[in-house]
Design a protein that fits this description.
The chain is mostly loops. The chain is 0% helix and 11% strand. The protein has a four-stranded antiparallel sheet, with no helix packed on it.
């Protein structure tokens, strides 16, 4: 099994060292270096959140070092890309109705002040960051663009399950019944104010799916979708849609289907030449702008039959057949 030792002040700046194996020898590995087993029973209810392992680290005023209560560090030199070497792993197995978590992180602000005061540093529940060099332009064998991922949430099926596992949501953001409220459920921000060195994202949010809805907005918000940007376009809808690019289904209490307000220097609504505007669901009664024998017209149709037009040329103001 190789060298296994436990000792006090085994290496500099460490109170306790537990080591298995040696970085300088080729030997058979062992499954677990340190294992802690704890069995809880019905009579152990006198404790609040009992733990198999508890680490307490107090940082007093005046400390200049950044303290980490628990640190999982992994140095990987393997060339096998199929492996998933992990610095810190949490596994929870659910065998009954009790709620379980694979990982649980809490950050509590105990300053007693609201954030409009000078609180100094921020408070973050969990931070995930990547550090690398160069572009991530690799395409995986299954066609996914890129292999550097900040947070990956695959949905698996248990090996002994009879049916494919299906789950309610990959990410759920919710307010608490104790009054806690997120001002923004999800905030995608590619730079902070004053951080002029940050490069903007190419795409803030991308949804790729073949399901029924790419984005579904429910509830009773003041606005189901608000786009507040200063770029060239507020929203772009592209793609080969088999039926409709934009579909608005109103309720009985809706006053308007589409409202365009504000001041537009050219036009509030623009459609290409020879594209119809239909006035009923069968697409029979419609009109469009077209050029006929050198004359611009707003031409009215019933089916393919022309029933009248408004001339837009300077020589003639109006003609109705």
């Amino acid at each position: 099994m190789g060298n296994v030792g436990i000792g006090h002040s085994a290496i500099e700046n460490n109170s306790l060292l537990v080591r298995s194996g040696s970085p300088n020898e080729d030997e058979d590995s062992i499954s677990t270096t340190v294992q802690i087993q704890k069995y809880s029973h019905a009579g152990d209810n006198q404790y609040v959140n009992p733990k198999a392992l508890r680490v307490v680290n107090q940082v007093q005023a005046g400390v200049s070092a950044t303290e980490w209560a628990i640190s999982g560090e992994l140095d990987s030199y393997t060339e096998l890309s199929s492996l998933g070497n992990t610095a810190t792993s949490g596994v929870a197995r659910k065998y009954n109705k009790g709620q379980v978590f694979g990982g649980h992180f809490q950050a509590k602000d105990l300053t007693g002040q609201s954030s409009n005061s000078d609180l100094g540093g921020s408070i973050v529940g969990a931070e995930i960051n990547l550090s690398a060099t160069g572009d991530d332009d690799y395409t995986t064998p299954n066609g996914y663009p890129g292999i550097r991922i900040g947070l990956d949430m695959p949905a698996h099926t248990e090996s002994n399950g009879e049916d494919c596992g299906k789950y309610a949501a990959g990410i759920r953001v919710r307010n608490s019944t104790d009054g806690g409220v997120w001002k923004k459920g999800v905030h995608i921000y590619d730079h902070y104010i004053g951080d002029f060195g940050a490069e903007p994202m190419s795409v803030g949010l991308e949804v790729t799916t073949s399901g029924s809805d790419s984005v579904l907005i429910n509830g009773t918000p003041v606005s189901g979708l608000t786009v507040d940007t200063d770029g060239a376009y507020g929203a772009i809808i592209e793609g080969d849609h088999s039926l409709v690019d934009l579909y608005v289904v109103g309720g009985d209490s809706n006053k308007y289907g589409i409202v365009v307000s504000g001041k537009h220097s050219n036009a509030a609504i623009q459609i290409p030449e020879e594209q119809y505007i239909s006035l009923e669901s069968t697409n029979q009664v419609k009109f469009r702008y077209e050029v006929f024998e050198g004359e611009g017209r707003i031409q009215f149709y019933v089916g393919e039959r022309k029933i009248g037009y408004l001339a837009t040329s300077a020589s003639e103001n109006k003609r109705l057949n």
